[in-house]
């Protein structure tokens, strides 16, 4: 038994692979193109572990996927690989269409050919697990209930439109060809190994460097935060017991305004690494808003809780404390990911 993971050198994918081996010896073939967001250092604890087979490659490369499926005969594909940053999708949507839409198409076609040739239990047990986002549902008003799986799709950014497109492909491959798929739509993740272009790690690394903490618009946009290993346990629960063709929302019932997140990070840093120059909140700087910025996301996670008994292990308070502590203990990791390419992105997005 083996699973094929795509995008397993990124933030969530690498947490998923590391977490997988805490409760399973089942080998993982990890296919990742190592874009700017992919980092083999995330997988360093598995360097000499024969259960982990890393393959550098692109999900758009159909011949490579066919070869990996034929060689390793996985019982499941867990598909994380994507371009994932909304701001980058605004500057350059092309890469998002290629990886998120064409890449998912290529993977689905390869999976369909492989699965069609399986027999008996292997065929019945095969799963294609598509990892998606709450952003496909659009933006909520303050009085709206959280997103349920039945909400209509109303994606607003090039990123969320590309993920919505991929979700529709997965749905169609199940409906038309019978491919055994499950899809999860998760809210904002945070935790160790998060690339510092996203809100929480960016605030931590900027604060430690004494740089401005850029808050878009009025900072009152709301996101629903989930500690990354809770997302991983949700994926494992759906992979093991999710009903075919179904989608499951994953979230931790943790709606927070961005400005409150930034203030929480500052307060934790004040406690754990006080700055003689004064409280870190002095660095908060309101900047021009993100174009088309979604105002509020919130996940109704009752389906996965009810049907699969999943619950998050972390509260926001325990998770954010662990996260800040991880960045303080891993400054060498941060320094290494802040390469030339990272610096180019920061100056394009925030100016010099
Ligand atoms: P990430 O950007 O940190 O990692 C993406 C990984 O995919 C990287 O390792 C990258 O090298 C790889 N990749 C990109 N293009 C590829 C290609 N063409 N072929 C092979 N590999 C490729 O992303 P993440 O935050 O870990 O997100 C993982 C998945 O979870 C994505 O599908 C994303 O849409 C979804 N998701 C993310 C969040 C979140 O808060 N980060 C929330 C819900 C869902
Ligand atoms: O909701 C799930 C999604 O969460 C995932 O699908 C995406 O892959 C992931 O990147 C994330 O998208 P967001 O756009 O919500 O995450 P980001 O960290 O970029 O921004 C979080 C909020 O913080 C958002 O309202 C924008 C704001 N923000 C972000 C940055 C980078 C700032 O105010 N300042 C910043 O510098």
UniProtKB/TrEMBL annotation:
Sorted alphabetically, which keywords does the UniProt record give? Answer: Lyase, NAD
Q: Which organism is it from?
A: Roseateles aquatilis
**Keyword Lyase among record annotations:** yes
| Cited InterPro entries | dTDP_Gluc_deHydtase, NAD(P)-bd_dom, NAD(P)-bd_dom_sf
Q: Superkingdom of the source?
A: Bacteria
Provide the catalytic activity annotation.
dTDP-alpha-D-glucose = dTDP-4-dehydro-6-deoxy-alpha-D-glucose + H2O
Name of the molecule in the record? dTDP-glucose 4,6-dehydratase
Q: Which Pfam families match?
A: GDP_Man_Dehyd
């Amino acid at each position: 038994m083996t699973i094929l993971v795509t995008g397993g050198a990124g933030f969530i994918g690498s947490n998923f692979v590391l977490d997988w081996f805490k409760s399973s010896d089942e080998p993982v073939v990890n296919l990742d193109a190592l874009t700017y967001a992919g980092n083999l250092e995330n997988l360093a604890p598995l360097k000499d572990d024969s259960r982990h087979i890393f393959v550098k490659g692109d999900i758009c490369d159909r011949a490579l996927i066919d070869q990996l499926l034929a060689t390793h005969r996985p019982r499941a594909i867990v598909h994380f690989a994507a371009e994932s940053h909304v701001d980058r999708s605004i500057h350059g949507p092309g890469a998002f269409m290629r990886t998120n839409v064409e890449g998912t198409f290529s993977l689905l076609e390869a999976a369909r050919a492989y699965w069609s040739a399986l027999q008996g239990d292997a065929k019945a047990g095969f799963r294609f697990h598509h990892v998606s986002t709450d952003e496909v549902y659009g933006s909520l008003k303050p009085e709206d209930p959280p997103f349920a799986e039945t909400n209509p799709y109303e994606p607003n950014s090039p990123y969320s439109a590309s993920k919505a497109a991929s979700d529709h492909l997965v749905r169609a491959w199940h409906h038309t060809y019978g491919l055994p798929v499950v899809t999860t739509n998760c809210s904002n993740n945070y935790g160790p190994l998060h690339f510092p272009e996203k809100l929480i790690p960016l605030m931590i690394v900027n604060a430690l460097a004494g740089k401005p903490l850029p808050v878009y618009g009025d900072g009152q946009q709301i996101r629903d935060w989930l500690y990354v290993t809770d997302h991983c346990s949700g994926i494992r629960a759906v992979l093991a017991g999710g009903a075919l063709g179904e989608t499951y929302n994953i979230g931790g019932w943790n709606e927070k305004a961005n400005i409150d997140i930034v203030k929480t990070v500052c307060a934790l840093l004040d406690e754990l690494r006080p700055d003689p120059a004064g409280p870190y909140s002095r660095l908060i700087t309101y900047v021009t808003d993100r174009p088309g910025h979604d105002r509020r996301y919130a996940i109704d996670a009752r389906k996965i809780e009810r049907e699969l008994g999943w619950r998050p292990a972390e509260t926001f308070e325990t998770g954010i404390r662990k996260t800040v502590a991880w960045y303080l203990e891993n400054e060498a990791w941060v320094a290494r990911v802040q390469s030339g390419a990272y610096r180019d992105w920061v100056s394009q997005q925030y100016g010099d």
